[in-house]
Amino acid sequence: QVQLVESGGGLVQTGNSLRLSCTASIRTFSTYAVGWFRQAPGKEREFVGGISRSGDSTDYAVSVKGRFTISRDNAKNMVYLQMLNLGPEDTAVYSCAASHTTFVRVVLTTGNQYAIWGQGTQVTVSS
Predict the structure, then answer these.
(1) What span, in angstroms and rounded, lies between the C-alpha atoms of 84 and 95?
(2) What does the angle CA 56 – CA 58 – CA 64 come to, to the nearest 5 degrees?
C-alpha cells in the first residue's frame, strides 16, 4: 500500500527549530516529486515547499524562503523539512505529498498536482 507518514511535529517556542520527516512506502520513490503543505485553523491549505524527484531542484513559498529547507534521501525513502526561526505564523498541520513525474527536475507547487498525501503532523509555535 502506497502511503506517506509525517513525523517530527511538536510544540516549540518562537525562534526555535524543528525538522519534519516524511517516510514513503513507495517502491519507486525516486520517480516521485514531493511537496510540503500546511494548513492553519480557519485557513486554506498552502504550499510550503517542494523538491524534485532528483533532489536537484527545490522551490519555496515566499513566507518560508530562507528559513525552511527541503531535502530528500531516496535510498531511505525519506524527505525532510528543516524549519528554522519558527514563529507563531508557522503554526499549522504540515503534510507531505508525492506524485510520480517523468520530469527529473520539476518541482510541483500546487496541491492538485499531488496524488498521494500523508495524514499530517501538528506544529505549534508559542510566542
Answers:
(1) 17
(2) 150
Q: What are phi and psi of 112, to 5 degrees?
A: -75, -5
Task: Name the E strands within the chain.
Answer: 4-7, 10-13, 18-24, 32-39, 46-51, 58-60, 68-73, 78-83, 92-100, 116-117, 121-126
Q: How far is Cα 1 from Cα 127, in angstroms, rounded to an integer?
A: 40
The angle subtended at Cα 77 by Cα 73 and Cα 38, nearest 5°, is 90
CB neighbourhood size of 45 (10 A): 15
61-103 pLDDT, tens per residue?
999 999 999 999 999 999 999 999 999 999 999 999 999 999 9
